[in-house]
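Reviewer 2 asked us to include a model.

Predict the structure of this chain.
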Amino acid sequence: MATADLKSILHQQIDRLDDPQDVQDLLLTVSEFISQRTTIFIETPELLAQLEQTLSLTQTSSPTPHDVVANEAKQWITQ
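Predicted model (structure tokens):
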């Protein structure tokens, strides 16, 4: 289905709403959806260097076993 068709259906659904609270809830939901979609990921030199360092560490060190990570997470949650 084309974007224009989808928008038309969405507009029709919105036009059916009579309760102002429903319209406000929908507006908040759509606003949050859009803000999540428009978050910009900026690749700074610092971020790229940190990613390279992390990748290097994962290639040169042994992984932490799952049960160790799970136990540490439980400790963090209960502190």
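Residues 6 and 12 are 10 Å apart (CA to CA). The first helix runs from residue 3 to 15. We have added this to the supplementary material.
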